[in-house]
Amino acid sequence: MSLINDALKRAKEAQQQAPPPPPDLPFRPVEPAQESARRSLGLLLPAALAVLALLALLFAWRWAQIRHATESS
Q: What does the pLDDT read at residue 35?
């Protein structure tokens, strides 16, 4: 038991002899990221292309339906 007490005493002495902690430094606000605008365009472009492709397929399908209806009459 005395070994534990000796170790605790040495640890307490070491803490008292340790240099004081550095002064508190003020925090700076986080700077806005420059990549967010580029990243939003990176998602917008594929989404716009997908919408355009779907519209093109819709118009092609409707045109084929109308063409097939006029050929069979």
A: 61
Q: How many CA atoms lie within 13 A of 33 on its CB side?
A: 6
Question: Could you give the 3-state DSSP secondary structure of residue 3?
Answer: helix
pLDDT of 23: 79
Higher pLDDT, 19 or 10: 10
C-alpha–C-alpha distance, residues 72 and 21, integer Å = 90
Sign of the C-alpha dihedral computed for residues 14, 19, 23 and 27 taken in this order: negative
Residue 33 phi, psi dihedral angles, 5° rounding: -75, 140
